[in-house]
Every structure is written in structure tokens, then in C-alpha cells.
Design brief:
The complex is a heterohexamer of chains A (about 210), B (about 190), C (about 350), D (about 240), E (about 190) and F (about 700). Chain B is built from 9 helices and no strands. The chains are: A alpha+beta (about 210), B mainly alpha (about 190), C mainly alpha (about 350), D mainly alpha (about 240), E mainly alpha (about 190), F alpha/beta (about 700). Chains B and F meet through loops of B and helix 10 of F. The complex binds flavin mononucleotide (FMN) (3 copies), riboflavin (RBF), iron/sulfur cluster (SF4) (4 copies) and FE2/S2 (inorganic) cluster.
Chain lengths: ~210, ~190, ~350, ~240, ~190, ~700
Amino acid sequence: MLPEISRSVIKNSLLLALFAAVTVAVVAITQQSTESRIATEERAAQIRALGEILPAHSYDNALLDSVIYLNESLLGHRTDTPTYIASVEGQPAAVILQANAADGYSGTISLLIGIMADGTLSGVRVIHHKETPGLGDRIELAKSQWIKSFDGKSLNNPEERGWAVKKDQGDFDQFAGATITPRAVVTAVHKALQYFDQNHAQLFAHLKTTEVSQ
Amino acid sequence: MSELLLILVSAILVNNFVLVQFLGLCPFMGVSKKVETAIGLSLATTFVLTLASICSYLVQQYILKPFDLEFLRTISFILVIAVVVQFTEMVVNKTSPMLYRVLGIFLPLITTNCIVLGVALLNANRSEYTFIQASVNGFAAGIGFSLVLVLFAAMRERIAIADVPKPFQGAAIGMLTAGLMSLAFMGFSGLIKL
Amino acid sequence: MTLPRITSPHAKGANRTQRVMLLVMAAAVPGILVLSYFFGIGPLLNITLACSFALLFEAAILALRQRPVAFFLKDGSVLVTGLLLALALPPYSPWWLIAVASGFAVVFGKQLFGGLGQNPFNPAMLGYVVVLISFPVEMTAWPAAHSIDVAAGLQYVFFGQALPDGWSQATVLDSLKTNSNLTLQELWDSNPAFGLFAGYSSEWVNLSFLLGGLFLLRKKLFSWHAPVGMLAALFIMSLVFWNGSGSDSHGSPLFHLLSGATMLGAFFIVTDPVSSATSVQGRLIFGVGVGILVYIIRAWGGYPDGVAFAILLMNLCAPTIDYFTRPRTYGHQTAKRGFKTGE
Amino acid sequence: MNPSFRDITINGLWKNNPGLVQLLGLCPLLGTSNSTVNALGLGIATALVLICSNAAVSLIRNAVTNAVRLPVFVMIIAALTTCIELLMQAFTYELFQILGIFIPLITTNCVILGRAEAFAAKNSIARSSYDGLMMGLGFTLVLVAIGATRELLGTGMLFTNMHLLFGSIAEHWQVVVFEDYKGFLLAILPPGAFLVLGLLIALKNWIDQYYAEHIASTAEVTAPAVSRRVRVTGVVD
Amino acid sequence: MSMVFIAVTALVLLSLVFGAILGFAAVRFRVEGNPIAEQINALLPQTQCGQCGYPGCKPYAEAIASGEKINKCPPGGEATIQALAELLDVEPEPLDAVEGEKPQMVAFIREAECIGCTKCIQACPVDAILGAAKQMHTVIVSECTGCDLCVEPCPVDCIDMIPVAGTLQSWKWEHPLPPGTLIATDREALK
Amino acid sequence: MNIWPIHPLRGGVHPPECKTLSNQQPIQTAPLAKQLIVPLLQHLGCSTQALVSVGDDVLKGQLIADSKHFISAAVHAPSSGTVSFIGPQPYPHTSGQLLDAIVIDTDGLDRWCPLEPLANFKEATAAELLEKIRQAGISGLGGAGFPTVVKLSPKADQSIKTLIINGTECEPYITADDVLMREKATQLMLGIDILVHILQPENVLIAIEDNKPEALACVRSALQQRNYYVVAVPTIYPSGGERQLIQILTGKEVPAAQLPAQLGILCQNVGTVVAVHDAIIEGKPLISRITTLTGQALRTPMNVECLVGTPVLELLEFAGLQQAKMSRLIAGGPMMGFTLNALSAPIIKTSNCLLAATAEELPAPPPAMPCIRCGDCAEVCPANLLPQQLHFYALGDDHPQLQAHNLFDCIECGACAYVCPSSIPLVQYYRAAKADIRELEQKQVKSEHAKERFEFRQERLRLEEERKEAERQARAERLAKTKADQAKKAAQAEAAGQQASTADDDVKRLKIAASMAQVALRKAEKQLETHNTEELKSQIEQLRITAEQAKQALAAINAAAPTPAPSKPVDDDLKRLKIAASMAQVTLRKAEKQLATHNTEELQTQVEQLRVNAEQAKHALDAATAAAPTAVEAAGVTEKAAKPELSAAEQALKKAKIEVAMKRAALRKAERAEADAESLAALQTELTQAEQSLAELN
Ligand SMILES: Cc1cc2nc3c(=O)[nH]c(=O)nc-3n(C[C@H](O)[C@H](O)[C@H](O)COP(=O)(O)O)c2cc1C
Ligand SMILES: Cc1cc2nc3c(=O)[nH]c(=O)nc-3n(C[C@H](O)[C@H](O)[C@H](O)COP(=O)(O)O)c2cc1C
Ligand SMILES: Cc1cc2nc3c(=O)[nH]c(=O)nc-3n(C[C@H](O)[C@H](O)[C@H](O)COP(=O)(O)O)c2cc1C
Ligand SMILES: Cc1cc2nc3c(=O)[nH]c(=O)nc-3n(C[C@H](O)[C@H](O)[C@H](O)CO)c2cc1C
Ligand code: SF4
Ligand code: SF4
Ligand code: SF4
Ligand code: SF4
Ligand code: FES
């Protein structure tokens, strides 16, 4: 009995190992040969995403490398969250913040907010949400143009009072049948602007340090 | 503790792996004609799921991550799963021929039950999961799978003796029923706000 | 002479399925009247449209299935389905919405499973849920009580013209769900529509359905187990999780009993014999399950009211419940329970 | 014993279609069929893996022992899947992002292992690859049919975002079928996937049934089959 | 290249371990025989008539266990197919037989014509025929399975297969029509 | 008067009673029918055999059919006359099938056979009384018609503590027991006294529904000093069902698949008790009963005392049948009765009612609608079943589920179908499903049996083949030997003799081998008991197999040896001719058949030839028969005489064979189940014994 076991053990393990070696080698080689292209694709995709809210011509630095990590309760952060700093010829040009609105209808709404150095919004996009399809999901650009209504707005345009949905006597439209979601988004963007207003010096200070280090 | 509870509720009800995340559907449709067999498969799957979650977590943490081999995730996880399943199969075959008769053809299918690999991969994607959390997630996925499978099987037994129109008999009405189950499970959406 | 061969019993009681269905519809009359008092002809419009569409779909499918059409239409069950669906939809629902809802109810909810008596899910609730998740905009447009402009309503129903401002209003359950900063007192003060405990119109509508339900109970159309189970469970859940009247309140027990579709659900829908559990004990469990799920969905879930989902979810459990609630047969020490069929 | 190529074709595309008849590979079938482009992307990826894995399994079919058969097969499949995954990542990055976990899950697509066990392990390479092709095609067709139906019902449009797969030439392939469509959300939500597949299966059954009846009524009465009686009890002298 | 090397080494080690485990299990937990065939055999009617194309029920059972269709046993009929489908968890199929399902039969030897050749005795798989050479033979009715294997070998064609007669005790109520299926008179009555 | 506490019945319904139709007038006597049809089976149990033959004259009360079987009831002539026919006759059964009966043409004289009344039954022993009840052919008059003596015979481990006299008569329409209690209360009391004397119960309960005040009053007044309880039970159907009545009266439930005797309870119908009285006190067998004739298709509904065997039509006409109005004829009540479609069927011992209903009274059932699971049926089911589930599973032929839902506890009372709003013929579903399940079970048993026989045969054939092979070799050797010996021994007769003895030797040798193997096996087994090792086990296995083989070889050789047939003075020539003739006939027929398909010249001539051959053979045969008619006759007679003997021997042989096979199977099973050595040994010895007896028979 025993010799049979050991024969079986040896035979099977060798067989399995042989196939493992071959298959893994194939995969590893494929990985090696696609690695660099994947990396470029990944970056390109990220740049495309950022480019939607911050046109590529409005900065000249390597945006993806110019990143700092924030953990700000005002922005609804719970972990270190990347913030991209854009510059033109070393001068502050814009920041791209990520903000989380925890008071969506059915969960947190994550936003990417682009703010020019002068405090105007270059664009806002939703990157993740769980709102009701057909109601709250019109904050997506794919479903409605509503999210573009932030373009060009700033902390004082409209007034403090206007940073709310129309139902709350603000300037921003709500959707038919859904107020919670736009209310949450508007508030989150407003808070982001406030944060930028208070902290832009620190944000761009980072630019200086990287410059210096370079 | 509450973290684990959330994982449980999420995996079983809100984001049920079968009805909402579309994992493990083949056995869900294939082994739900009789409750007794469904229970057998549930037990086996839950067992394999938990074990596979644990093993793949270990592989991920102690082999793939340290050596930067994360592209080998799929291949190594599936290897782990296949071995766990095959081993279970042999043991069941020897120790309980009755159970083997019930599960025989489906034990190998657990290997290709997406839910097992799916949970392992999702666990790996959630890099913040601890060992306990990963195992609980695997276990909860198994419970969620078992729950809907058993409910579905009992329901299909009832439908089997109903006067269903001819073209719909069998798989088609099963699929529609699963759709309506999934519809009912949408009632749980929003229960967990993360 | 040839005499027929017929099995015993040769005598036959007087009860008939048609009568059962007619009684259910009759019992809904007080509720319909109260709804019409608040929302004008909206509910009636809903009922007419839903019943017609339901009849139409039923007849079409029966004909396709080559079943006797008139025979089955006469049983009246499809009218009950249409009626209950209509009562669940917001008054003045667009005609196409009603068509989709009743189509789903009758075709997917009932006929594809073999027709009367064989559907595992409650058809009316199925139709309701399908349109609820497909057309949330229309489904959240509940008109405000008494402020009905009938002409505008008709235009909206049939021609899809936009609703005038102030026409629709969040229901009380909605408001409670979306409320984030007012205490209950403030919430109630802020709006006359909130009524005494559960919404001005809601309270009366629920009480009128309760009345109809008690009538059915008296007529022995169903046993008390399912409705009482559901109401008791809802009451207990809302009492246990009653977290005061702050801005994060889940609402008082009385609020839950008299708002939303509670009474309609408890007496007209949970009692649907077809899709519920079989034994008396099973029906009690079924009702309790619905009550608990209604509260969970109302308090913590994404939907303001959970009656429809709770019922579908318990429909899902009904066959399993049946396995565990077989009664003890005469002459047996214990009941045979559980999934095992063999000895 | 060897099935003809014609049989393989008919089996893969219709008679034994993995999606409609074998009911295998349901997870991607339902999970990624909410739009045509997703469906097509995953379908192609799956078909590729299927062809290669069938060929590979057929190649090594005589070299493995029973004990490690399953692990070896899945390892081959997993390796192929990973290669496809890496390639997709390199060339159709965004689609890869959308399809997410379903790409690595091709590994556990029951169709693939099912074909490996049921066909490739018993047949020649040519037949196995062809079977892979046909099964893959059948699977992709069903996937695309569901995807298109759901997209159409859910949004009133077809072929949205095809550029994710075909690059910029496909930017304008989008077709708006219903103007001013409300959008039947159920179709693109999870329940819709089950319902559409259920209806598709019923449709296939109905067609089969119709043809069976049709053929039965036209076909001539065939000669009665010869009894295949066998002598049961041995010794008769 | 080192990456490839590491990858291969890691997985090879892993598979060596797993292969060893499986190899061990393959021997340690080996099972002999095929229990499923026994269970299938228990469901077959044991008529041993060979109409399934196999020499007896047991061989057919073994064939089913290794993938043969379950619808080839005419004596078993729909009931057996149903039971097999249940056991194997497959869809039941309609009976595949030339004549379809037959009523229960029993062999009857017209004794006056029997020449006592014993050919039928040799053919009967269950020893249901009594008799010795050159003497009249009779069928033990309670043992006869109705397989009709004895009919063909009889040189003087003196064996008839007759349907088993129904008795008052074996009479049964037919199943009622399923609800909702109307018979002609019902349609009349409804008008 | 004592009050007996009662308990509620679970479920039940209360259909319109319609009893006043027939209970308004006293019991009438039905006119004597010209022909009485007396079925041989009127009870539950084994059929009887006729003791008279056609043409016999019988007297009223004369025993005309009986059975040796315990569970059976004798049949007596209901009136005097002549037996005119014995064979299939109409029978009161739904199927309308015929059943063997004795037809008596009455002579109108009603002459009794001598009776043996026993006025003072108290002096008789229980056994004597039971014997008299048995001879009187009494079977239950209240329901299933179970032979009363069986119910009354005490079982070793049970004693009857409570005797229930069932006078509930819960079915609508029926009033037979009602009027019986009113008019024969004294006889009823005496009958009860007899039962009490036999059974010595602690309590006697006479249960009567409270809708029969007159019957209650009569019974109460007939009670006198007796300490029996007369219990008025609430009117609800089916309170009269044995199990339900027991629940009402005692609060206990009869365990499923067991008899009330398990609880020390015995239940008898009032009519049965009166029949007992008549049998003991007056010596009269059970030849008549009280039957209710009712329904609106009768002009004068009534109760009649009628003779068993009276055709239904005559009774109905006595009650003024309006055939045109009758839409349904029911034997029994509207809840449990069954429809009759032949008016020529006779009244039997269990016929308590004939209900000739009009279409208005009992309208045709409306077409069934689907079940809506309303649960009304479950509410009224006295057995606490789930009728709707049973119905669904019956629809789907799901036998395991039906059994899990206790289908066989359904008493077919029909309460569920009565209340069902969808008018589903629930009871028919249950009956059909029950019959299916029983049939399948029987099939299963049969196939199990067939399998054993088949396997046994296969084994036998295999051994035979082996033996033949061995013999062939031996013969070859022997041939060589004889050739060598030929020089020395010349006589051929000697060689033949030797051969004969070798056959005998063969058997002997095998016998020895078998017993040797057996001994070795037993030894080894004993050893195994003390030293249980792997090695020994396998050794024993080996031994067992050899023993088995030896035994089987022996059995086979024995079976193969021709059974000694009684030598017959058959004209050999004749027989041969007969065979030749039939062979020729057969070849001819076959050739003709062939001709029909392939019509060629050649074949035709061939057939012609064959035909001539056959003709010739036939002629020869004819001639031979003509020449020796007496021989043939003699042969025929002897054959006839020989046959039963032969078959008896064969039967015994067959039995023995089966026994051996069964024992072998049991042993194999036990071995497989790894039973302990002891029981294995026991089985083994049993097997050997069986085999020995088989060998002896051979
Ligand atoms: C099924 C359902 C889903 C909903 N989903 C959302 C949502 O995604 N976003 C949202 O703001 N409100 C959602 N609501 C909330 C209601 O539409 C709510 O009435 C509205 O947000 C606030 O009411 P108002 O617009 O009348 O102020 C949902 C309600 C229902 C019934
Ligand atoms: C199949 C069967 C077997 C029975 N065997 C016995 C028995 O052995 N001893 C006995 O005292 N009664 C026996 N009975 C009689 C029952 O106890 C009962 O009294 C009888 O069935 C009459 O019941 P009913 O008319 O309700 O149907 C038997 C009845 C049936 C149906
Ligand atoms: C549903 C049902 C109703 C019955 N009703 C009566 C009844 O009313 N009176 C009666 O004597 N027996 C009735 N029986 C028969 C009894 O169960 C029982 O068999 C009988 O009383 C036994 O007595 P026997 O052996 O003397 O006939 C009924 C049986 C059933 C199943
Ligand atoms: C008490 C009672 C309640 C019912 N409730 C419903 C219901 O909620 N929804 C519905 O579609 N049909 C209802 N019906 C009607 C009927 O049962 C239903 O159409 C079947 O589910 C269709 O098979 C009800 C019937 C009764 C008797
Ligand atoms: S056809 Fe059926 S009964 Fe006949 S040998 Fe085959 S399996 Fe046995
Ligand atoms: S007697 Fe004839 S029909 Fe009956 S079992 Fe034997 S061979 Fe078969
Ligand atoms: S009474 Fe009839 S309809 Fe009601 S549950 Fe019973 S069987 Fe079904
Ligand atoms: S017939 Fe059977 S199921 Fe129906 S009520 Fe009577 S006992 Fe219950
Ligand atoms: S594809 Fe089969 S289980 Fe997922």
C-alpha cells in the first residue's frame, strides 16, 4: 500500500508541477511583454479622466506625478485620498480634489472636482455612486448634463445662499422626484470650494517643494 | 464585530453574490430542482468557499504580495480551489457514498463555480481585509448562496407541478423565477450605506 | 339508462371561488371611497385602467395558451389583481405605466406560472415593484390630497403632459426617510399633510382598509394569522427600535401601523392565499416575516415603503416555510417537518 | 464516434448551445450583458480562451492522471485567461475596466471546463479547436442577443460606446431606436438579465417545438425500427 | 527574466505540494465499484427482457451509469423513467420504444399444444415455467414478468401473452382531469 | 344516568341532513325477489368458495359459501330456492365490474334451515360465542365490512377496555341505524350484552348524534339497569368515523397505521350488534339488513329490511322509483357513498343506503377550477392533513411528497372536497394516487423478486456450464480409458452401467465436497470469533465461496436431474405422430408466412410440398387415433390424474427452490451489511437446511 502511495504522490506532484511551470512561464512572459504598455494605458486612461474636468492645455506639468494625499473630514475623506496639482510653468494652475458626499440617497457619492487657481470650477464628475437608477443617477454625465451646471461657478458665484438646490431656494436645479442626491452633490462641491479657499496656499506650497526637490 | 456583521448582511442580503452580483449561477440553476440536492450543494459550496477564501488569502499575503506576483492571482487561486475541491471530492466519495451520489457531479463543478474564485478575487481586491474578514466574507458568500439556492429549490419544486406553458417549462421558468427573486432582493438595496 | 360515475362526496358546499373574489373586491370599497375623497377620480381612473389592461392581458395569454378564456376570466381573480395593483399605484398614474404594471402582473406574475392558483409571487405586488424600479420618477409623484386639478390630471395620465407645480408631494413615509435635520415635532408642524400620526390622508385610507379587512375576516375568507402576524410584528419592531422623535427617528408604532400600505397589505395582500404559505402556522410565520421586513426596509432600506418588497421576499420563502410547518396528522406522534421526504 | 464538423457546428450554435441549453457560463452571460459592447467584448474574450483551451487540453489529454486532471485543466484555462486579461488591459483598457472581475472569471466559466472535460479530453485537436470556436460563437451570439435586448429595452438605443472595443472608428455607431424613450430600467438592472435570458430560452424552445411539430406533420411514416432485442439468458442449446 | 523565474518557482513549489496532497488522496480515498449502477438497477423492473438493447437489466443499469439514455426500458415505462430522472437529476424523456408502453402481460401456454420441448424453460430468465422434457409445461403466473422471451423459441407457437386481468381489488379511480381543462360536456354546461 | 365527558372533533363539516325524508315511517319489509344474487365476497378480506353447485336446492339460512381463511365471512342463502347459476354477476361497486356470485331462484316459501338458538348466552364461553358469530357470517354493517369475529377475537397482548357502539350515523340522508335503534333497542341491548360477555370491557359507550332524539330516547329506555353510557355526540360529519368517534369520546388518537385495539378500544356499528344478537339468541345467520331507500327520485323514501342479494332495482321500485328523475344512484350516503351504474346489482351486507338523487338534489359537479390554496379544506380535514398540498402532489405524481404528507392517513371522508370553493374532486385524486402508490409498491416487490430469481438462474446456468465442461473432459478421459479396457471387457451393457453409476458418483462426490467445505467454513468462522484478523476474514470469504459453489453445483445437478415422472401408458407412437403432425403444421405455417412476403416459385412449390406433408402427418395421426381410441382416452385420464400430483410435487420443489434463493440472498445481504459472525452462521445453517430439503425433494 505504502509504496503505491508514494509513487502516486511523486507522480502527481511532478505532473502538476510540470504543467504549472509551463503555464506560469507562458503567463509570466506575456506579462513581461505587456507590462509597459499596460502602464502607459493606465496613465492615459487616468489622464483622460482628469482631462475631462481640466483641459490638457491648461497645465504643463506631469499631473499624475504631481500628487499629494489628503485626509480631510470637510471633503468627506476617510482614507488618504490623492489630490492632483496642476501648474503652468511652475506656477499654480489648478487642483483636482476628490470629495465624498456621505449624504446621498443610498450611500456615498464620490466626486472629482477641478478648481482653477482663481477659485472657479473647471469641472465636476461623479466617479462612484449608488443612487437610484432613473432618479439619482442623473448626476452622471452619461445620463444628464446636470453635472456641467457647475462649470465656471465659484465660491461667490453664486452667492452663499445660492449654493443649494432650487427647492431649498438655491440656484441649482434638482431632478423631478429626487432632491436628496443633487442636494448632496451641491453641498459637497460647495464644501470643496470652501476648503480650497481656506487651504490653497498649502496645496500649492506642495508645488513649490516638488519644484525645489526637482 | 459590527464590521463583520456588516460583511455578513452585505454578502447575504444586500449584495447577494448570486442574485445581485451574478456569481455562481450555473449550479444555482442546475442543482435547484430538488431541495435535498440543493442542500447538499449548499453545504459543499459553503465549505469549499470558506476553505478557499482562507487558502487564497494566505497565498495572496504570503506568496503573491511579497514576490510581486499579483498577476498570477487568477492562476494560483484557481489552483488552490481546484485542489481543495478535488480533495473534498475524494474524501466525500470515500466516506459518504450517499452524499457523493447527491453531489458527485457537482463537486467538480464547484471548481468552476464563479462564486469561489469571485470571492477570492474580491477579497484580494479589498486589500484592507484582514484574515478574519476575508474568511468571514467567504463564509457569508456561502451562506448567501445557500440561502437563495434552498429557497429557490423549494420554489422550483412548487413550480414543477404547475401548469407552466410548454416552451417555458424547465430552464426558462426557472430563469424567470430567479429574475423575480432578484427583483424581490432589490428591496434590500440601500440597506447598507457604504 | 346510463348513470354517471362520480367520486364522493356527492354533496357540495355553497362556497365558490368567484364569490371569494367578489367579496374581496367588495371589501375594498370603503378604501376606494376614502381614496377618492382625497384624490378625486384618480384612484377610480387607476382601477378602471388597471382592471381593463389586466383583463386584456389575461384573455390574450389564455387564448395563446389555448385555455378556455371565458371560464377563467369569470373567476374574477384577475380583477382582484388589477384592483389591488391600482390601489397601490399613485393616483393618476400614466396609462402606459399602468399597462406595464398590469402586463407584468398578469403575464409574468401569473400566467407564465400556469395561471390562477399556481403563481409563486403575488402578481399585483410584482407589477408594482417592476414599475417602481423601472419608472421611479412617475412612481414618486404622489399627488397632494385635495389639490387636484382633474383636467391637468387627465392630461398627465393620457397625454403625458407635465404636472403642474405643487401637484405632487412627498408622502409622509418619504419625508420621514429623507428628513435629515428636523425633529419629528418640527416635521409634523411643518406640514398639515402629516395629520395626527401618520399622514392626513394616510390615516383615513388605512382605517378604511382596516374596516374592509375586518369584514373579510368576519366572512371567514381567511384566518386571522397572516394579517395579525404582520401587524403585530410591525408594531413590535417599531416599538423596539423606536428611537425617540429626533431627526433620525424611524417613526412611532402608530405611525407605522397607519401609514403607507400597511393595512392594504395586511388585509388584502398578505392574505392572498395563492402565494402565501399553506398551513395556518405557516401563514402566521409568513405574516410575521412580512411585518419584520416592512419595518427593516422602511427604517433602514432604500425605499420609503417596504410592503411590496416584503411580500415578494416572503413569497420567496413560502415554499420553504411549508416544509417546516406541516401540521401533525391525526394519529402521528409528531409532525413531519423539514426538507427530507423519505422516511 | 468522432462527431462530424457539421454536428459540432449545429451543436455549438443551436442544439447544445452553452447559454440556452447547457445553461453554463451564466454568470458572465447575465453579469456583463447590460450593453452590446460589454457583451461582445466578453464574448470574444471567452471564445478566444475557449478555442485555445480546447486545443491545449486536447493536446495533453493523454498525459495527465485522473488525480490531477482537474487542476491541470483549470490551470491551463487560468493561464490562458490571464494572458487574455493582460492583452485586454494593454489594448482595450477601458473595456477591461468596465468588465472588471468578469474577465478573470472567464477561468471559471463553466462552459470552458465543461467543454474541456466533455469534448476536448476525448477528441482530436482540430475537432476540439473547432468545437471551441463553435461553442464560443454560440455563447457570444447569445451574450450579444441578451446585451442588445437589454440595452434596447433599457435605454432605447443600440451599440452605445462601441469605440471601447473597436477604437475611434466606432465612435458614431450608436443608434437611437426609440426617440424620447422613458427607459425601462428593469431591463438593465439585475432582474432584467434573468428575465431576458428566460424569455430567450423559451423562444428557442418554442422554435424547436414548432419545427418538431411541423416536421412531424410533413414527414412520412418511417418504417418501423427493427427490434433491438438481445438474448438475455445465456445457454440455449 | 528573473520575474519569470520567480513566478515559475513559486508556482512550481505550490503545485508540488498540491500534487502530493492529491496523489496521496487519490490512493488513500480510492473507491471501488460504481454504487450508482446498483441504485439504477434497483429502479429497473428486472423483467430481463432485453428490449433496452442490453442483455438484462443490470447491464443496462451499468450503461446508464456511464451515460446511456434513461428512456429505453419499455416494461418500466414512464414510471421508471421518472424515477431514474429523479435519481440522476436529469430531465425525463419520453419512452424510446417501437411499440410504446404495453400493459402488464403474462405468458400462457396452451397446454394441449405443448410438446414439452423445454425451449421456453431455457428462455425464461426468471424460471417461471415449470415442466420437464416431453411433458406439458405451465407458467407460474405469479413469477412471470411478462417479458415474452419464451414466445419466440416455442417451436409450435403454443405460448400466448395475455394481458393481466383486472380484478375488483386492482380496479382504481382514474386521475381527474387537471383543473381548468374542460371536457366537451363542461363547455356545454357553462353556456 | 352517568355523564360521559366528550371532546371536540378536529375539523368536520355540517352538510344539510335530509334525514327526515326517510325516517318518518317504521321499517318496511321488502318483497321477496324472484332471483337473489349473493356475491361470494361481501366483506373486507378473502373471498369465499361456493359450497353448492348449480341445481342444488337450498334452504333459507343454509351455508352456501365459506372460506378457510381467517379474515373472511361465510355466506348463507337468504331465502329458500334453487341455485341457478354460479359465476360472474353484477356487484355493487363503482367500476361496474362483475364478481362471482351464487344466484338463487327463490321458491317463495322462505323455508328456514334448522336453527340453533342459544337463549342463555351467558352460559356459553367466549370461544363458543365467537364460533357462532363466525358461522353466522357477520361482517361489519357500518363501514368497511370487516369480519366481526376477527375484530372480536382477543389478541394476546391487548384487552379491550372500552367498547364503543357506533350509532352516530353522521352521513346525511341515511337513517338505517336511526330506525334500527328506535325499533330494535332491546335486541341492541342484548347484543351489547353478548359483546360484553365476550370482551369484558370496562366501559361501554353507545354514541348517538344529537340529531336523533327518538333513537336516543329509545336506547336510553332500553338501557334499564345496565351501566352503559349513552352519549349524545354533537352533529358533525364525520363524527361516525371510527377514529374520529374515538377522538370525540376519549380524546385519544388511534396511532397511524394501527388499530383502535391498540388503545384497548373496539368500535362496532349498531347494526352489527343487532346481527350478533340475531346470530346468538335466534341462531340466524346474517342474511338481511336494514337499508335506507331515499332521495327525491323516490316517491316513498323509507327504510326496508331486505334480504342480501335483492337486486337494487326491485327495492327502488318498491319505494316508488321515478327513473326519469333519477340523475345519480348512490350506494351509501352523499359524502362517502359510491355511484352505481347497474340497477341489477344486489344489496350486500354493507349496503346501508340507496340514494336515488335528482339533478336538483345533487347537481353535477361544476368543472374544477384551479386550487387557490384558500385553506378551507385543511380547516375541515378531520385527519389534520393538508388536502391542497396532497392535491398538488397528486397532480404532479410526486409520491415521496404524498407520503411525506401522510396521504395514507386520509380516510376519504370527503369533507375537504365538500368545502372546496374550486370544486376540485380532491378525494378522487387521493384514491387514484393511493392506488398508484400501492401498485408501484407491488411492482417493486415483484421486480425485487424477479431479480433474485434471475440472479439465481444466472448462477445456476453458470455452474451447469462448468459442470458440463468438467463432464465433457471426464467423458473424454473415460473414453480413452474404456478404449484401453475394451480388450479386457467386452460387454457393452457393463459400460452403460458404469456410466450410470458415475452420474450417481458425481452427485455423491459433490455432496461430500459441499459438506467438507461447509465444515471448513464453520471451523474458520468459529476461529474468527476468537481471533478476528484480516487474514482470517479473507480466508473465510474464500471458504464461503467454495462452500457456496459446491452447494450450488450440488443443487444444480439435483435440479438438472429429471424429476421422476409417473410412468404413463401413453401410446408412444401416437405421441410421436402428434408431435410430427404439429411440427409439420408449424413448418407449414412458417413457410406460408414467408411466402406472403416473398412470393417466389420455389417457395410456392416448397409450401405445396409441406402442405402435403402436413396433410399426410395428420392423416396418419387420425388413423392412429381412430385405431386406438381407448388408448388415447386412457392416456388422457391418467394424465389428468397425474397432473395434480405432479404439480403438487413441483410446487413443493419450487417453494424449496425459492426458499434457498431467498436464504441465499438474505445471507448475502447480511454479509454485505457486515453482520456479526453469529447471525451469519445462523443464516448459513438455515441456508444449508433449506438446501438439504431441496435436495431431498429432488
Ligand atoms: C424608489 C425610490 C428611490 C429613490 N431614489 C432617490 C435618489 O436616488 N435620489 C434622491 O434624491 N431621492 C430618491 N428618492 C427619494 C424621493 O424621490 C424623494 O421624494 C425626493 O428625493 C425628495 O422629495 P422632493 O423631491 O419632493 O423633495 C427615491 C424614492 C424612491 C421611492
Ligand atoms: C386492512 C384492514 C385490516 C384490518 N385488520 C384488523 C385486524 O387485524 N383486527 C381487527 O380487530 N380489526 C381489523 N380491521 C378492522 C378495523 O379495526 C375497523 O374496525 C374496520 O376497518 C372498520 O372500519 P370503518 O368501517 O371505519 O372503515 C382491519 C381493517 C382494515 C381496513
Ligand atoms: C368518514 C366515515 C364516516 C363513518 N360514519 C359512520 C357512521 O355514521 N356510523 C357507523 O356506524 N359507522 C360509520 N363509519 C364506519 C366506522 O368507521 C366503523 O368502521 C364502524 O363503526 C365499525 O363498525 P362495524 O365493524 O360494526 O361496521 C364511518 C367511517 C368513515 C370513514
Ligand atoms: C384574500 C385574498 C387576497 C388576495 N390578494 C391578492 C393580491 O394581493 N394580489 C393579487 O394579485 N391577487 C390577490 N388575490 C387574488 C388571487 O388570489 C390572485 O389573483 C392570484 O394570486 C392569482 O393566481 C387575492 C385573493 C384573495 C381571496
Ligand atoms: S428493457 Fe427494461 S426490463 Fe427489459 S432488460 Fe432492459 S431494463 Fe430490464
Ligand atoms: S414465462 Fe415467458 S413471459 Fe413469463 S417471465 Fe418467463 S419468459 Fe417471460
Ligand atoms: S379548499 Fe379547494 S381551493 Fe381551497 S385550498 Fe383546498 S383544494 Fe384548494
Ligand atoms: S378526504 Fe382525506 S384529506 Fe379530505 S378531509 Fe377527509 S381525511 Fe382530510
Ligand atoms: S459561469 Fe458557471 S458558475 Fe459562473
